[in-house]
Amino acid sequence: MKLKDLLNKTDVVEIAGNADIDIAGLSFDSRKISANTMFFAISGAKAEGHDFIDSAIENGAKAVVCEKIPDIRNENVCYIKVKSSGDALGKIAGVFYGEPSKQLKLVGVTGTNGKTTTATLLYRLFKNLGYKTGLFSTIAIYIDNRKIETANTTPDAITINSVLREMVEYGCDYCFMEASSHSVVQGRIAGLNFTGGIFSNITHDHLDYHKTFDEYIKAKKGFFDSLNKDAFALVNVDDRNAKIMVQNTKAAIKTYALSSPADFMCRILEHSFEGMLLNIDGTEAWVKFVGRFNASNLLSVYAAAILLGAEKNEVLTELSRMLPVSGRFESISLSSGVTAIVDYAHTPDALKNVLDAINDVRSNYGNLITVVGCGGNRDRTKRPEMARIGLENSDKLILTSDNPRFEKPEDIVDDMKAGLNTAQLSQTLCIVNRKEAIKTALTIVGKGDIVLIAGKGHENYQEIEGVKYHFDDREIVLEYDSAVP
């Protein structure tokens, strides 16, 4: 495409050079530049893209999008100055790939907890209703039935738009996307045309990146600020920040809740470890999910489906057939009569929700042991709270390693222990080796007891010093069970 045409949707501050040139590709990685590529100099947490402009030009870049034009310029290169290179990348990528988000119905899901479950269930629901459907989630990207592995909750803008183009060409009618706070701030979803947005909840998380809770809220709110007047903004008004999310949106505001007056409402009539009987929008439905947080997730799926034009009874029928998402309250019955529950809960609120769900239905069960750790190089402020919530809602707590990344796991465990008093520490074991921690928990329990293994869920790796080693909580549980005589 012509460079000047690619800039139609972007707020350009200054152009230095000839914009009447052909662009063959886009990249924000100078190492992946080829002839006639457009390079985006993006300021990131790990690297400053402006430092790699010369390298990109040496590799064939003919245009550079930057927030500051270099003092010494190459006369064969066009420099485009913008306020945000990340935002420009999102908008330009959309144009480059023919604005695919306008050619299907794209729905974004944001919030601290519940994004993966909500987006994945919507994807499954619309596939079961007979539509070709796409998904961007923490677990994977799907183009209908084709799976693409992903490293981020929300990929970069080039990946998003190129995959959306594939979805359109394959004939997808819908796409459901987790929209992380990072993706909003970094412009990864800039320029996308969303049919609707869903807000689940917001609690303290990612403060290692956003620094303050207000900035985190602002990031989530930015997604709803970007919706157009033809879209819907579906928010959980059981969360006190729901009104803030939509106070400046142009979209049609719709609400859902379990406890507050809302457009879409749900009540839990019965619950057990096998599932719940819900009253959704006046109709009863049995679902194979456990916990109030899952009732809220299912309600958001139902509400979004109705807003997208699906028929009520068909939606409820499909919801009653669905199984939980991998690593989300995944229950494993052991031969010893112990129930192991593997869950992705890695924030204080998510851990409390899962423990509440277990405690609500465990009256006929025995003791509850929680195994939990915290990720390294992430928000340290939640570590003491995770330990406190774990113990206050369990009979025994085992603190262990999660993904320590570049921190010492012993230091992370010490941070968690700081949330416990002397009496609580007497009910706590610290076993840094996660495999040993899980096996210890399964060893010290008996028939009827429950072991919650929290933090990693679907993840099949443990990240240590920049290396990802294979590690799957579920495999450890099954391995232990098969070895027991």
Task: Give a short overview.
This protein is an alpha/beta fold. It is 33% helix and 23% strand. The N and C termini lie far apart (66 Å).
Describe it.
This protein has 485 residues and is an alpha/beta fold. The protein has 3 domains: 3-96, MurE/MurF, N-terminal domain (Udp-n-acetylmuramoylalanyl-d-glutamate--2,6- Diaminopimelate Ligase, Chain: A, domain 1, 3-Layer(aba) Sandwich); 100-321, Mur-like, catalytic domain (UDP-N-acetylmuramoyl-L-alanine:D-glutamate ligase, 3-Layer(aba) Sandwich), CATH 3.40.1190.10; 330-483, Protein-Tyrosine Phosphatase, Chain A. Strand 23 (461-464) and strand 24 (467-470) form a beta hairpin. Helices cover 33% and strands 23% of the residues.
